[in-house]
Design goal:
mainly alpha; Fumarate Reductase Cytochrome B subunit; 4 strands; binds protoporphyrin IX containing FE
Length: 282
């Protein structure tokens, strides 16, 4: 049993037509296994994270009781994108596991919402947010190396507290971004295969082989997003992460939570009387 389904084109060529749908179950099980293993690890094996502490009292006193984390625009983007993502996942995969309904229209409408929300996010993050806050930097790698050394029982200095996002979040964002771009770019092309309000249907736009590969990429990135979504929701509802999840609703987190995990020199809060410029000793 291969991971792709094949057919013979009118020209007699063997072409892939889409992924084999058992991959839906593989993705679902992979997500569930991840969360079970992680939950057991945290419950029975992980200790408290031990950070190098260098936050001075004067720095702490300058901070407001609530630390702004996500602007209203960023929160609206997040929830619109999340709603579109759930509609896309359910409309794509429920019919493949036996729940039949007329899914294609709902699917491309949600795809259009996702595409517009991501375009908004790219412009917003590039020009109005701290663009570099979500990309791994040198200190992330140094600190992750220290965390790994300590994890395997070797002696190493304590890692610094995080900037706005730990390396794990940055890597997750990178993978979701690549899968998201893959479904969006292929999805826009696939809209030529169905009737939409945007352009006339044209199933002859690409060769059978190119269409086939496009459906395969759309499907692979799509099932990947099943696992990624499960992992994301799992972390969002973990008790120790609830303040972060709440900040995606109310926009801010408590000063205590901020100081526990974040380094004010690496995640500078705007609007303080003496803003300290940026990261890592610069
Ligand atoms: C979470 C994101 C997405 C997932 C999981 C997903 C998944 C899928 C799957 C499994 C199919 C069936 C393909 C096949 O039969 O081989 C499909 C079809 C389709 N997708 Fe998506 N998709 C996503 C995002 C998008 C986006 C962003 C768009 C548009 C911008 C889009 C447009 C389409 C269209 C038009 C079809 C119908 C193709 C046809 O019936 O010929 N999808 N999608």
């Amino acid at each position: 049993m291969g991971i792709l389904e094949w057919a013979t084109s009118p020209l007699g060529q063997r072409v892939p037509i889409h992924i084999a749908w058992f991959l839906i179950w593989v993705a679902l099980i992979a997500g569930l296994v991840f969360l079970i293993v992680h939950a057991i690890y945290v419950r029975y094996f992980a200790g408290e994270m031990d950070f190098a502490s260098d936050t001075s009292t004067s720095e702490t006193l300058e901070l407001p009781p609530r630390i702004p984390r996500h602007s209203l625009a960023a929160r609206l983007f997040h929830w619109i994108m999340a709603a579109a993502m759930f509609v896309l996942l359910f409309t794509a995969f429920l019919p493949k596991v036996g729940i039949q309904f007329n899914w294609v229209t709902y699917h491309w409408i949600a795809g259009t919402v996702l595409t517009i929300s991501i375009l908004f996010h790219v412009v917003h993050a590039t020009f109005y947010l701290d663009f570099w806050s979500i990309w791994p930097d040198r200190s992330d790698l140094e600190d992750t190396w220290k965390r790994l050394q300590r994890f395997i029982g070797k002696r190493a200095e304590s890692p610094r507290k995080f900037a706005k996002y730990p390396l794990e979040n940055k890597l997750y964002h990178g993978v979701v971004m690549l899968s998201g771009l893959a479904v969006i770019i292929t999805g826009i092309c696939m809209m030529f295969r169905v009737r939409t309000i945007f352009f006339p249907r044209n199933p002859y736009l690409f060769s059978d082989m190119t269409w086939g590969l496009m459906y395969v990429l759309h499907g692979l990135a799509g099932v990947g997003l099943i696992t990624l979504t499960i992992v994301h929701v799992y972390f969002a509802v973990r008790p120790e992460k609830l303040p972060i999840t709440a900040s995606m609703i109310v926009g801010s987190m408590s000063r205590e939570f901020y100081l526990k995990e974040h380094d004010p020199k690496r995640w500078v809060i705007e609007g303080l009387s003496h803003p300290r410029r940026t990261a890592d000793g610069d």
